[in-house]
Write a structure and sequence with these properties.
- The strands form 3 sheets. A 9-stranded mixed β-sheet has the order 16-15-14-13-7-12-11-8-17. Strands 3-2-1-4-5-6 form a 6-stranded parallel β-sheet, with helices on both faces.
- The radius of gyration is 21 Å and the shape is globular.
- α5 links the parallel β5 and β6.
- The protein contains 10 helices and 17 strands.
- By secondary structure, the protein is an alpha/beta fold.
- The structure holds nicotinamide-adenine-dinucleotide.
Length: 391
């Protein structure tokens, strides 16, 4: 379905790394971006760069919520304010796209779920946009149609290297700012959400081992934007209370389609894996075949068969089926990647709003975001107690 989206108006909170990714994707969809909120200086600069008419400085998101010119709010601020800003947006009657993780604790994210379940509540999505890579949608179709048979196990990783050195700094390193789980909470939940979406089944139990390689790191004075470089000579030491990497085993429950029941998965998550920039890789192994994919080569999936030749299927060619139509805009050989996954996600959310909720809600809901936060707490408990923990 293709629904014009230019009548919907967005307000974006946060002007750091990911805020402008949202703005660019919305502009490519033809959505009007009418308001921006952040520090007075950065919000003003962002408004000038992108031609955004309403500017709300001093992080005054409540003023943005009072604007009659905003239908959908995009929350791209740091984790610790997601719940407060989400609850206020819902109370103001705004639809929400909230960045992941939905919040810092399951106790607080539960409140967002309750607010979205009230009669007449606006649409709420959590930005687990990896669901909207055509490759992920195609893998989901292969699993849920039974093309791979009964799913036996899943493996993979999410590796980055931007926090490899003790002098690399970001607010995510502090549990008080980003949450008690860092590598797993920040990027591991993308992996878990994508696998959950592909399998169509929820994680029932986890077993985890988490490690902090840099027990002491060095930080600059003041705030630093994600991926920004700072002179190490100006830094001071601090004790690290979040993990650099971890191994997680997951046991999935039963899926309605019948091809997943008790499937076992193992994932390695690291933000200190030299050479890996943003590699979310996964392999799904069934009784009839397997499929594997890496976000760093997002346009292809490898289908493996034991008694036939393996195949490389390419986005927007005969290998990708009707299941992904509407989630890809360019012909085969014209790569689509990270920014396009955001665009496809927001298209799905905005079409859902514009159609009066008639299109399928493939996006992650508040309940899905809450489940991820609950899983993070179970993973932390498992790592501390060295036991399987029910999710
Ligand atoms: N979905 C993805 O792929 C993805 C990628 C990166 C980040 N994220 C998420 O996006 C969020 C922001 O991450 P980032 O990397 O852009 O961080 P960042 O530090 O680069 O940017 C955060 C922005 O929020 C602003 N801010 C700080 N406090 C605020 C407040 N109280 N109200 C409003 N704005 C405030 C900061 O000034 C800054 O502009 C995080 O929750 C992160 O997990 C998601």
């Amino acid at each position: 379905m293709s629904i014009p989206l230019h009548q919907l108006r967005a307000g974006v909170i946060g002007t750091g790394f990911i805020g402008p990714v949202h703005i660019e994707a919305l502009k490519r969809l033809g959505v009007q971006v009418t308001a921006i909120c952040g520090s007075t200086r950065s919000a003003t600069a962002c408004a000038q760069q992108w031609g955004i008419p309403e500017v709300y400085g001093d992080y005054d998101y409540r003023a943005l919520y009072r604007s009659p010119n905003v239908d959908v709010v995009h929350i791209t601020s740091p984790n610790k304010v997601h719940v407060e800003q989400s609850l206020a947006a819902l109370a103001a009657g705004k639809h929400v796209v909230c960045e992941k993780p939905l919040g810092m604790t399951a106790q607080e994210t539960r409140k967002v779920v309750a607010a979205t379940q009230r009669a007449g509540a606006p649409v709420f999505a959590v930005n687990y946009m990896c669901r909207f890579f055509p490759a992920v949608l195609q893998m989901r179709a292969l699993v849920q149609r039974g093309d791979l048979g009964q799913i036996i196990h899943v493996q993979g990783h999410f590796f980055q290297d931007w926090l490899l050195q003790a002098t690399d700094y970001n607010w995510r390193l502090l549990a008080s700012e980003g949450g008690k789980l860092r590598a797993v909470g920040d990027i591991g939940t993308h992996w878990i959400d994508a696998v959950t979406f592909i399998l169509g089944a929820k994680t029932e139990a986890v077993f985890a081992h988490l490690e902090t390689f840099h027990k002491t790191r060095f930080r600059p004075r003041g705030q630093v934007q994600t991926f920004a470089k700072v002179d190490p000579k100006t830094m001071q030491p601090y004790k690290v209370d979040t993990e650099d990497f971890g191994s997680v085993l997951l046991k999935f429950g039963k899926a309605e389609h019948g091809f997943v029941n008790g499937t076992h998965a193992n994932a390695s998550i690291s933000q200190v894996a030299a050479g890996w920039k943003c590699s979310l890789a996964l392999g799904i192994y069934g009784t009839k075949g397997s499929v594997s994919w890496d976000l760093q080569q997002p346009n292809e999936i490898l289908v493996g068969r034991r008694d036939e030749p393996n195949q490389i299927l390419q986005r927007a060619t005969a290998g990708f089926s009707e299941d992904v139509v509407g989630f890809t805009d360019y012909p085969g050989g014209h790569p689509e990647g990270f920014p396009d996954s955001h665009k496809m996600h927001y298209r799905a959310v905005y079409e859902h709003i514009a159609s009066g909720r008639k299109t399928p809600a493939l996006f992650a809901t508040a309940a899905d975001g809450h489940h991820e936060v609950k899983l993070c707490e179970a993973i932390l408990r498992s790592s501390r107690t060295k036991r399987w923990v029910r999710a």
